[in-house]
Amino acid sequence: MSFTRDNHNNPGVKGLPYFTPQHAVSPGTPNAKNTAPVPTLFKPLSIRGSTLRNRILVAPMCQYSTAAFGPETGSLTDYHIATLGHYALKGAALVFIEATGVQPSGRISPNCPGLWSDAQIPALRRVSDFINSQGALSGIQLAHAGRKGSTAAPWTTSSKPGSKISARAGADVGGWPEDVVGPMGGEEWTWDGKSSTDPSGGFWAPRGLTEEDISQLVEDWASAAERAVKAGVKVIEIHGAHGYLIHQFLSPISNRRRDKYGGGFEGRTRLLIEIITAIRKVIPETMPLFLRISSTEWQETSKLGSWDVESSIRLAKLLPDLGVDLLDVSSGGNNPQAKIPMHNNYQVAIADRIRAAVKADGKELLIGAVGLITEAEQARDILEEGGATRTGNGTDGVEADIDKETKAVVQMTETKDGGAPQADVVLVARQFMREPEWVFRVAYKLGLDIGWPSQFLRVSFQKL
Ligand SMILES: Cc1cc2nc3c(=O)[nH]c(=O)nc-3n(C[C@H](O)[C@H](O)[C@H](O)COP(=O)(O)O)c2cc1C
C-alpha cells in the first residue's frame, strides 16, 4: 500500500509511515482571505534554523503517563501523541514535551518521561514526527528534579483531583528514595523541610552531589540533548526553574556548598553554565536552545539572600554568548513558604523587566512570557510595540485580585503606556488543556482568518 499521495495529488508529509496531507496553509497562520492587520502574535519568528509559524507556544506540562517499570520505563506513548498532537494540529507554533529526566533519578515521579537511554529515542521520534508533520515545531524540556524527585503523580496523593499536595514515591511504585539528590544532603534539606519519616511531609531527604556526580550529570544532560536531536526534536529547553535541580543550585537558600558550585553568583550558576555549554557543543548550530528559569523565588526578604529578578537579569545578559536563544521567564517553586502575588501580569511584568535590561545592554536574547495568559487581547498586547501593559517593577507585591466566591483570578485592568513589547513569544499551559483550539479562538477574537488543518476545513471559522 502506498501512503504517498491522495487523489488530489497531495503528496502527504514526507518521512512518515502513514499518509497525512500537507496543509495548504499551515494551521495557525493567516490565510489568503485574511484582510485584517496581522498582530505580532501571528507573525512568524525565525530562531537559528527553525521558524515558529506564530508566537503562541505550548508550555511544558507534566502528564505522569509513562511506564514506571520494565523496558518502556520513561518512554512516551500514544497518549502523548494524542495530547500534544492536537495542540500541533490546532495551530500552536511549538509544542513542548514535558519535563523529561536526563537521568532516571532526574524524573519528578516514576511516571515521568526520560531520555537517559537510546531505547527511549523511537517513542520520542513518533511524538516529535507527528508534531512536526502538522507544521509546528517539536520541543522537549530536559530536566533534573533533584530533591523534588521520586514523588507521586498528583492524582494519587489526594482524593481531590488536581491536588498539588506532594507525596513520596517509594521503591514499591518505582521511586528512588536512596538516589534523590541535591546540592546539599541530609534530612534538613528536604524540599518541604519535613524529615522523610514525617508522615505529613511529601519529599525525600536528598544526598548531596559530589563533584564527580556533577561531571556525570553534565555529561548526561548533553547525551540526552544528542538523543533529542536523533529523535528529530527541533527545540531543546533546559529546565532551570520551579525548584528543580538547577534552580536548587542557583539559589543561595538551597545551595550552601563551599566548593566551586556554591558561594557567590559565579559558583551557583556554574552548574547551569556547564550544562548549557555541554549541550550547545553537541547540538547543531541551527538548533534553537531555550532556558526556563524561575526569575524570582519570591524570597526577597530572606536573610540568606535569594534568587531574585536582579540575579535573573545578570544571568540573562550572559546567555546570548553561551548560545541560549530564548529565556522563558517563570517563577517560584523552590520554597514552600513563598507567597506568590498571582495576577494575570505577575510573571509577564518580570519578563518585561528582563527584556528591557538585556536590550539596554545591546544583547540579543528572545524573551518568553508565561503564566495566566488566557485572553486573546492579553496575548496580543504582550508582544505588541506600543501596546504593552505595565504594573510596577514586577516584584513590588501587587496583591492577588481573587474573586472570593470562585477563587478565580480576576483579570486586572492596566493602562497602556506605549512602551516596547514585554516579550517575544507567549507560552501557555493550562488554557491549552481547557481549550486545545485556543489558537483558533485567539485568531477569531482578533478578527483574523487563519489556516485550519485540511481535514477540518468543513468547519466554519465564523461559528467558532
Ligand atoms: C499540569 C501541569 C504540568 C506542568 N508541568 C511543567 C513541566 O513539566 N515543566 C515546566 O517547566 N512547567 C510545568 N508546568 C508549568 C507550566 O508550564 C506553566 O509555566 C504554568 O502552568 C503557568 O502557565 P499557565 O498559567 O498558562 O498554566 C506545569 C503546569 C501544569 C498545569
UniProtKB/TrEMBL annotation:
UniProt region (Disordered), positions on chain: 150-169
One GO MF term attached to the UniProt entry: NADPH dehydrogenase activity
InterPro entries: Aldolase_TIM, OxRdtase_FMN_N, YqjM-like
UniProt cross-references to Pfam families, sorted A to Z: Oxidored_FMN
Residue ranges constituting the NADH:flavin oxidoreductase/NADH oxidase N-terminal domain according to the UniProt record: 41-389
Classification via PANTHER family: INDOLEAMINE 2,3-DIOXYGENASE PYRROLE 2,3-DIOXYGENASE (AFU_ORTHOLOGUE AFUA_5G01450, NADPH DEHYDROGENASE C23G7.10C-RELATED
The protein, known as: NADH-dependent flavin oxidoreductase-like protein
Annotated organism of origin: Karstenula rhodostoma CBS 690.94
